[in-house]
Amino acid sequence: MNNPLLLGLDGGATKILAQTCTIDPRSSLIIPIDQYHESNYRDSHKFDSGFIPIDLAQQKKEAKENNYSFSEQEINQSASVIEIIVKVIESSAKEKKISMVGLCFPGIKTANYDGISIMANGPRNINMLSMINKMLKPKLDNRISIRAIYDDSECCVIGEWKSSIGKLRECKNAIYVGGGTGIADGIILNNKILDRDIERSWELIMPSGESIEQCLSLGGMLSQWNKEKGESIKAIVSLFDHAVSGNNFANNIIEKAAKAFAFLIERRMEFFQSQNTKPEKIVIGQRLGNLLSDKNNPLSKLIFQNNYNVSVEISTDRRTAALGAAYKAHEKHT
Questions:
Q1: In CATH, which of 3.50.30.80, 3.40.630.30, 3.30.420.40, 3.40.50.300 is domain 5-153+321-332?
Q2: Is 170-316 a CATH 3.60.15.10 domain?
Q3: What's the burial of 55, exposed, middle or buried (CB within 10 Å: 0-12/13-18/19+)?
Q4: Residue 229 — pLDDT band, cuts 50, 70, 90?
Q5: How does pLDDT run across 11-68, given as a tens digit for each residue?
Q6: pTM to 2 decimal places
Q7: What is the distance between the alpha carbons of residues 92 and 18, in angstroms, rounded to a whole number?
Q8: Residue 232 contacts by C-beta under 8 Å, 6 or more apart in sequence?
């Protein structure tokens, strides 16, 4: 294949997903090549499983004042993330002739999109990009450098919209809701991804005083369930099993998640109405999509019993954000 090979990286709170891909010159869609690979930050000797992020209110204050106070624990935790990202890029570039890398990551980015200034579920690092590129330079003879850190929510939408595996191909108006540790949500309006004019799920506050993200994300549900730390599959299965068995505490968590989803969609539909249009579909993706693909899942039953006046589709492919990051890197720098 003569088309240049791209590497898309989707960074999360606990691991990073890497996907090699290329742009199809005929359709202009991005196409995955070979299998994706996931690497856990815990594989770094610097990783601290007991790391607790700084309080969000404090993070916002420091970001607003541009005066940051990073603890040694936060610096080391970020170093573990960077170490794994560099290893993934180095390994991929040695196996294949990668020409460009696109990286997306959760959290609020710095003004130049070269660092993370606010991070709900992990360590901040306002110098993240320069540290990654500095470590890559001697390893890859200066062949590859990353130009920006993209928003994971936007890249999820791009991956569903502009990839060969996406559920939003050819949509001009649509709603996307992706769930993992946090919520990656987005809107396509008049054939463009909206990035500035809507409140994100972590900014949308429900009548209960909690954010959409706190109630609907897997990380938020597990934080309430509090049976295990982290994002263990066993923990989320435990939550849903207990709900099916009639555990009131578990059912309350799941009912709140369903209400959060309905609240989010209601707000998004109101936005489309304000623009005198309506979405063609709603797509639910990432790990939330995988969970809801099981029609017997109690959360799936609650969510799909509502009529949203628009078709709802499930995307179970976890590669979309990585593909979106690669697509954006190619679009921005070619």
A1: 3.30.420.40
A2: no
A3: exposed
A4: very low
A5: 988 899 999 999 999 999 999 999 999 999 999 999 999 999 999 899 999 999 999 9
A6: 0.90
A7: 8
A8: 222
